[in-house]
Backbone:
C-alpha cells in the first residue's frame, strides 16, 4: 500500500480541495443571495460561469505546477538522495509529520470555513468598490470579472500551498504512491464541500471531521516515529553494513541493543508484506521497534495532547474575556476566523489582511 | 624468493640410517617478531626463537618427541596442537586449551612429550582462541622407513599453503563475533602464501620424481592447487597412504594435507608455474583488488623466465572421496554408536552470529574437560557433568562410532577430529539436505580415511571410526572463525580408561599452567566438586533471541496504543468543543 497510496498526500489534497469547494460554494451562495430569483438570469448565469472558470483555471494551474515540481524532483533530485537513503527518509518523515501536525488542527475548523470565506469574500467585494484594485480600464475589467478573479486567486493560493505541502511530504515517498492519493483526496474534498453546501455544517459533519483529524494525527505520529527509526537504521547500516542490515527481517536486520521488540515477520518494507505496509503508513508500525521509535511515538502524542489542551483552554479563556481568536500555532487558527455564527467586523479585518498578505 | 632445497629435502638414503625410537627435542621460545610475507604490510607475527616462518618439525615414525615451549609473548596465552597425531595414551599432550590443558600463561613453560607412531604429513599450531593465523603454524613431518611409495619418488619437498591477514587476530575476532557483524561474515584474507611467502622458486631436476607434501596451514581459505604442465598423483591424505590417483587440480581445505607425486620433465627448456588459488566462494564479499592467488615456480633453469600462470576456465578439482587407503582397511559396517550433528549459524541475544551443533554453540568449560574426567571418578561417564555448552559425547571403548553431520548452512566447512582418522563413508553433493540412509546409496568397501574432511554447502557427511584411543578429542570446523563462534563438539572417549592411563600422571608444568591462569582443575564443567550435576556458575553462551514480543515489547506497544487513544480523545474533545 505505501507504494500506491500516500496517506499524507491524500489528507493534504482532501483539506485543500475542501477549502476550494467551500470558496466556490460560498460564492455561488453569494450570487444566489445578492442577485435574487427575480434578477436577470443571463447576468447570473454569466457570473456563475465566471466562478467556475476561475476555479477551474486555478486548479489547472496548480496541477501543472504540482506536476512540474514533483516531476522535477523525481527525475533530478531522487538520485542525490540514494546515497544516504535512510537519512533522507528520516528527514522527510519528520518534516511530513510536522507539516501534518501544524495543518491538522485546521481540519477541525472546516465547519468554520464557510463563515470565514463569507467574510473574506464580502470584504474583498467591498474593497473592490473601495477602488483598491486600480484605475481606469483595468478597474472596470476587474469589476466586470470579479467573480472570475476572486476564485482564481484564492484557489491558486490554496493550491500552491497544497503543492508545497505535497512536495514536502511526498519527498520521501515513491512516485507511484502520489497520483491515486491526489485523486482520492480531491474527490473526497469535493464531496464533503458539496455536502456542506447542501446541508450546512451539521453535528455529524463535525464528528466526521474529528475522526479524519484523528487519522491524520495517527499518520503524523507514525511518520515522526518512522523518521527517528530511519535515523537509527542509518546508524545500524553504517555499523553492520548494507548487506546485513537489509537482509530481510531476521537477525541482523536490526540492532539488538536498541530493540524494544522484534518479530521476524510483518516487515512493512518487505515484498508481499501482506498489508503490514498499511499499518506502517497509518500507524507507523515497525516489526522491529527501537527505543527511539517507541519513545518518539509517545513523545509526539504528548506534545499533541499538551498542544490541544493548551489551545482548548486558551480559546475558552479568550472567549470568556472577549479577546478575538487565539493564535495557537495551528495554520488556520492563525486567521482568527471568528467564533460566532455571524462574522464580526474585527475578525473580517484580520481576514482581509490575510488575503492581502 | 629462492629457497635452498636442503631445507626441504631429506635424502631417502638417510632414512635407512636413522636409529629407530630416538628422542627428538625442540626448544621453542614463542615470541613476537615482525614479518611482511606478502610484501604489502609489515606486521607483528608470532615466531619461534625469534624466527618466522616457524620451523618444520621433523621426526621419524616411532620417535619420542619433546617440545619445550616457553611463552614469551607477554600479552597472550598460547598452546600447541599437533594436528593429526593420534596421541595414543597422551591425550594430555593434544593442546587445546580448556580441553586437555590450561593455556600457557605469558612467562610460563610447558613441555609436550609424546611418541609419534604414525607416518605422514601433519602440522602443528596454537590451539588457543584464534591465535595460529597470527603466525604460530608450521609443518610437522613424520618420515617413514617403511613408506610403501618410497620407490616411486626421488626427492621430497614440503609446501605449506596459507592465507594471510594484515590485521591481528584479536582485533579481527573482536569484530567477527560482535553485534556489528550480525551475518557472521568471516574476515577475508589479504593474501595467499606458499611456504609463508610468495613467488617461491622450487628447484627441479629434469627426469626426477618429487613427492610434494602439501599442507594448508591457513585460517580460513581452502585453496585450489595445480602445477602447470604437470599432473599429480595423490599418494597420501592426512597421514593415510593412498593408492596413487591422478589429479590435475586438488582442493585443499584449511588443515588438510595432500602428498602428491610430480614427475619432472626430461628437459629444462622452460620453467612452470604452480598456483594456490583461494576459494572465493568462502568469502562474503571479495574486496576489490584482492589477489587471491599465490604463485610459485618449478624451476628447471634459473636463467629462463618465470612464466605468468594462465587463467583457468573453471575449477574442477579432484574428489578425494574415491581415494583408497593402501592398508585396505575395510568399511566399518556395524555401527555401535551414532552421533548426529546438525550444523547451523544463528544469532544470539548479544546480536553476534554463532555456529551451532544441535542448537548448542561451544563455550569453554571452566575446568579443562580432561581434568574433569580425571577428577570425577565413576561419574566421568555421565555426560551431564561436562557442561551445557560443550556438545559433549561420551564414548565407550572399542565401539564403531558414526558421526552424521548435516550442514544446514550454505557454507563449505572442513571438519577435523582430534585423535583419529575417520572413514569418510558418505558425502553428499551441495544442497542435498540432511542425511537419509535410505537414499544415500552404497558405502565404499574401502573408504578413504583422513582427519579433515570437507562437507558441501547444505550437504551432509557420514564418518566412522573405532573408539580405540582413550582421550578427550575435539571435533570441530577447521575454519578458525567458526571455532571462535562455537562450531566445536567434545568427544570424551573411554573416560575410565583415560583415568587409568593418566590418573596422577599429569606433569607438574601442566598443573602449573592452571595455577598461573587461576583455572580450577577439579570437578565438573563449572568447577563444582561436590554435586557434580550442579552446573551453576558454569560458562554459558549468550541467550537465544526472543521469539517475537517480550514483556518489554508488550509494555511499549500498550503504552504507544494508550497514548495514541489518549491523544485522539483530546483531539475529539477539542474538535467537538469549538
Residues:
Amino acid at each position: 500500500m505505501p507504494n500506491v497510496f500516500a496517506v499524507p498526500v491524500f489528507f493534504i489534497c482532501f483539506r485543500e480541495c475542501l477549502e476550494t469547494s467551500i470558496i466556490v460554494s460560498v460564492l455561488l451562495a453569494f450570487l444566489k443571495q445578492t442577485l435574487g430569483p427575480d434578477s436577470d438570469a443571463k447576468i447570473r448565469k454569466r457570473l456563475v460561469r465566471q466562478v467556475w472558470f476561475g476555479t477551474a483555471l486555478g486548479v489547472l494551474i496548480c496541477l501543472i505546477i504540482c506536476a512540474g515540481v514533483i516531476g522535477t524532483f523525481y527525475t533530478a533530485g531522487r538520485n542525490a538522495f540514494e546515497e544516504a537513503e535512510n537519512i533522507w527518509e528520516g528527514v522527510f518523515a519528520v518534516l511530513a509529520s510536522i507539516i501534518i501536525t501544524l495543518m491538522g488542527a485546521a481540519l477541525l475548523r472546516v465547519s468554520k470555513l464557510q463563515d470565514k470565506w463569507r467574510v473574506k469574500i464580502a470584504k474583498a467585494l467591498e474593497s473592490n468598490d473601495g477602488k483598491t484594485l486600480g484605475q481606469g480600464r483595468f478597474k472596470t475589467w476587474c469589476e466586470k470579472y470579479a467573480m472570475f478573479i476572486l476564485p482564481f486567486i484564492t484557489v491558486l493560493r490554496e493550491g500552491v500551498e497544497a503543492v508545497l505541502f505535497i512536495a514536502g511530504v511526498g519527498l520521501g515517498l515513491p512516485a507511484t504512491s502520489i497520483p491515486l492519493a491526489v485523486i482520492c483526496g480531491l474527490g473526497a474534498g469535493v464531496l464533503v464541500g458539496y455536502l456542506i453546501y447542501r446541508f450546512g455544517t451539521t453535528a455529524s459533519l463535525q464528528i466526521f471531521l474529528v475522526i479524519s483529524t484523528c487519522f491524520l494525527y495517527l499518520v503524523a505520529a507514525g511518520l515522526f516515529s518512522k523518521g527517528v527509526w530511519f535515523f537509527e537504521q542509518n546508524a545500524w547500516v553504517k555499523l553492520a553494513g548494507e548487506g546485513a542490515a537489509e537482509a530481510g527481517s531476521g537477525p541482523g536486520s536490526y540492532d539488538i541493543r536498541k530493540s524494544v521488540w522484534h518479530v521476524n515477520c510483518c516487515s512493512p518494507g518487505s515484498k508481499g508484506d501482506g498489508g503490514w505496509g498499511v499499518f506502517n503508513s497509518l500507524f507507523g508500525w515497525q516489526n522491529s521497534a527501537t527505543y527511539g521509535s517507541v519513545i518518539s511515538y509517545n513523545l509526539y502524542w504528548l506534545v499533541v495532547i499538551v498542544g490541544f489542551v493548551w489551545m482548548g483552554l486558551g480559546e475558552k479563556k479568550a472567549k470568556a474575556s472577549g479577546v478575538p481568536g487565539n493564535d495557537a500555532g495551528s495554520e488556520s487558527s492563525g486567521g482568527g476566523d471568528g467564533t460566532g455564527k455571524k462574522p464580526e467586523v474585527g475578525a473580517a479585518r484580520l481576514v482581509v489582511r490575510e488575503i492581502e498578505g | 624468493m629462492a629457497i635452498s632445497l636442503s631445507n626441504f629435502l631429506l635424502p631417502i638414503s638417510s632414512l635407512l640410517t636413522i636409529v629407530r625410537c630416538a628422542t627428538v627435542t625442540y626448544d621453542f621460545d614463542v615470541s613476537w617478531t615482525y614479518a611482511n610475507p606478502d610484501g604489502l604490510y609489515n606486521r607483528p607475527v608470532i615466531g619461534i626463537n625469534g624466527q618466522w616462518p616457524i620451523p618444520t618439525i621433523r621426526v621419524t615414525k616411532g620417535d619420542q618427541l619433546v617440545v619445550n615451549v616457553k611463552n614469551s609473548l607477554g600479552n597472550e596465552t598460547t598452546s600447541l596442537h599437533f594436528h593429526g597425531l593420534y596421541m595414543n595414551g597422551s591425550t594430555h599432550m593434544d593442546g587445546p586449551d580448556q580441553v586437555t590443558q590450561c593455556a600457557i600463561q605469558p612467562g610460563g613453560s610447558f613441555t609436550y612429550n609424546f611418541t609419534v607412531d604414525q607416518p605422514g604429513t601433519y602440522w602443528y599450531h596454537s590451539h588457543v582462541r584464534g591465535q595460529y593465523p597470527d603466525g604460530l603454524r608450521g609443518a610437522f613431518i613424520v618420515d617413514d622407513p617403511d613408506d610403501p611409495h618410497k620407490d616411486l619418488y626421488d626427492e621430497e619437498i614440503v609446501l605449506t599453503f596459507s592465507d594471510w591477514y594484515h590485521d591481528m587476530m584479536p582485533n579481527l575476532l573482536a569484530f567477527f563475533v560482535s553485534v556489528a557483524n550480525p551475518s557472521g561474515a568471516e574476515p577475508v584474507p589479504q593474501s595467499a602464501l606458499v611456504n609463508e611467502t610468495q613467488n617461491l622458486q622450487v628447484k627441479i631436476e629434469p627426469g626426477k620424481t618429487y613427492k610434494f607434501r602439501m599442507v594448508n596451514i591457513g585460517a580460513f581459505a581452502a585453496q585450489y592447487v595445480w602445477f602447470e604442465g604437470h599432473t599429480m598423483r595423490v599418494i597420501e591424505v592426512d597421514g593415510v597412504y593412498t593408492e596413487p590417483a591422478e589429479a590435475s587440480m586438488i582442493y585443499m581445505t584449511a588443515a588438510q594435507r595432500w602428498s602428491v607425486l610430480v614427475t619432472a620433465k626430461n628437459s629444462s627448456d622452460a620453467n612452470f608455474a604452480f598456483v594456490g588459488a583461494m576459494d572465493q566462494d568462502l568469502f562474503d564479499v571479495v574486496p576489490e583488488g584482492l589477489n587471491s592467488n599465490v604463485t610459485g615456480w618449478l624451476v628447471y633453469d634459473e636463467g629462463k623466465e618465470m612464466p605468468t600462470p594462465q587463467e583457468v576456465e573453471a575449477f574442477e578439482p579432484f574428489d578425494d572421496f574415491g581415494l583408497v587407503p593402501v592398508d585396505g582397511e575395510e568399511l566399518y559396517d556395524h555401527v555401535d554408536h551414532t552421533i548426529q550433528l546438525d550444523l547451523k549459524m544463528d544469532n544470539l541475544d548479544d546480536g553476534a552470529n554463532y555456529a551451532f551443533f544441535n542448537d548448542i554453540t561451544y563455550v569453554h568449560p571452566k575446568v579443562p574437560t580432561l581434568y574433569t574426567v580425571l577428577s570425577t571418578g565413576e561419574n566421568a561417564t555421565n555426560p551431564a557433568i561436562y557442561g551445557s555448552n560443550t556438545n559433549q559425547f561420551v564414548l565407550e571403548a572399542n565401539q564403531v562410532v558414526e558421526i552424521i553431520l548435516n550442514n544446514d548452512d550454505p557454507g563449505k566447512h572442513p571438519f577435523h577430529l582430534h585423535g583419529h582418522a575417520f572413514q569418510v563413508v558418505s558425502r553428499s553433493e551441495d544442497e542435498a539436505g540432511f542425511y537419509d540412509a535410505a537414499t544415500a546409496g552404497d558405502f565404499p568397501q574401502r573408504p578413504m580415511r583422513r582427519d579433515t574432511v570437507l562437507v558441501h554447502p547444505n550437504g551432509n557427511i557420514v564418518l566412522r571410526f573405532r573408539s580405540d584411543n582413550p582421550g578427550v578429542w575435539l571435533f570441530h570446523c577447521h575454519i578458525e572463525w567458526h571455532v571462535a563462534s562455537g562450531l566445536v563438539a567434545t568427544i570424551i572417549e573411554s573416560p575410565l580408561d583415560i583415568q587409568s592411563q593418566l590418573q596422577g600422571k599429569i606433569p607438574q608444568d601442566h598443573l602449573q599452567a592452571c595455577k598461573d591462569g587461576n583455572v580450577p582443575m577439579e570437578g565438573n564443567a563449572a568447577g563444582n566438586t561436590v554435586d557434580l550435576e550442579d552446573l551453576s556458575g558454569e560458562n554459558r553462551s549468550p541467550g537465544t533471541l526472543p521469539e517475537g514480543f517480550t514483556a518489554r515489547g508488550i509494555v511499549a506497544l500498550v503504552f504507544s496504543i494508550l497514548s495514541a487513544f489518549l491523544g485522539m480523545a483530546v483531539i475529539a474533545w477539542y474538535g467537538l468543543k469549538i
